[in-house]
Specification:
Two copies of one chain form a homodimer. By secondary structure, chain A is mostly beta strands. Helix content of chain A is 8%, strand content 40%. The longest helix of chain A is centred in the N-terminal third of the chain and has 9 residues.
């Protein structure tokens, strides 16, 4: 965290900049996820070790402005997933359910080329391609993960209910049912060999 | 309304385009507000009559996608306020409170130069300038009106809780406490002569 953490008062109007060209706000520090934070999330563990052996690249970053956890407030910011692969699997975000499962999220892509991989607890899954200008509705109950399938930073503006919360644990223990790899130069959806139904 | 009204299923992921250059979605019809719909909202009634006598210009348009009125859903779209004036008062949206007063709204400006005029029932008011890349938080309890002070269409992307609702009536009967006019070529905030406390 940098010193760029203004204490917004969410009961008074405020504005800040997310530049349209790259989404990187000069007014607030981003949260950065390096590859080391994503151990076990990519399918190919040896490719992960190999990628880590030559450094610890930044996979994605996003902005958390610290909205109060209130159903009347909204959290918002930008998310930037960088281009790259671990083995043949594209760089992606961890992805998460909302803790209050029945809360939606809106994304608007401003740069790059990416996919949003979504699935709900019932096992329905969905993949939407995002390019600049595409807006996406992530409905209630859908976990969502950004995947960069292009060569530029995949950049989106997002908004969700401020009390929704992030449940990363379910994804970290179970994984996603599907994963997206590059095959013959194109994105291909595959079953995730690491995915497992919850043990009970 | 055109025939471009796809019946989104808000429980399944979907995407649509809001082009970054102008916000005008090719995938859905916009709602258009012509000057005739804004009788009495500008301070100068004779300037209003004069403007109407030469036509009925489009003042603003925005996208309503028909989100279900559910606290877990989100309404989103773009809003485009055109450049122009009635007398010396800039083109603006009607503005509204949310019916569920304690619900916020997020705006992100992608084009043009505008102001968001906000006030709450307690009489606190606030004005924020928006230019491309500026994101704005309209807190709970604040009525909000877009005002175009530039020469291009003032274009924003917005998101709010889908059950928030629009209370236009309070603004239509009471007006805003403040208005923004052009004085010596610059925007100037003034008391609204038409504003009145609610009669009880």
């Amino acid at each position: 965290m940098s010193d760029k953490q203004p204490g917004w008062n969410w009961n008074v109007p405020f504005s800040l900049t997310f530049p349209l060209e790259n989404g990187l706000s000069p007014d607030h520090a981003s949260t950065k996820r390096y590859l080391s934070a994503m151990q076990g999330m990519f399918a190919d563990d040896s490719a992960f070790e190999e990628a880590m052996s030559v450094g610890n690249p930044l996979v994605y970053e996003f902005f958390e402005l610290g909205a109060p956890s209130d159903a009347g407030d909204l959290a918002f910011g930008t998310s930037i997933t960088y281009p790259g692969k671990v083995g043949n699997e594209y760089y992606m975000t961890k992805g998460h359910f909302h803790t209050i499962l029945a809360t939606a999220e809106v994304y608007w892509c401003i740069r790059g080329q990416g996919l949003m991989l979504m699935e709900n607890p019932e096992g329905d899954w969905n993949l939407q391609e995002l390019t600049p200008g595409k807006a996406l509705y992530v409905p209630k109950r859908y976990a969502h993960r950004s995947i960069n399938i292009g060569t530029e930073p995949f950049t989106t503006f997002f908004v969700f209910r401020a009390d929704a919360g992030h449940d990363y644990g379910t994804i970290e223990t179970k994984g996603y049912r599907k994963l997206v790899v590059e095959l013959d130069g194109k994105p291909q959806v595959m079953d995730n060999p690491k995915w497992r139904e919850e043990e009970r």
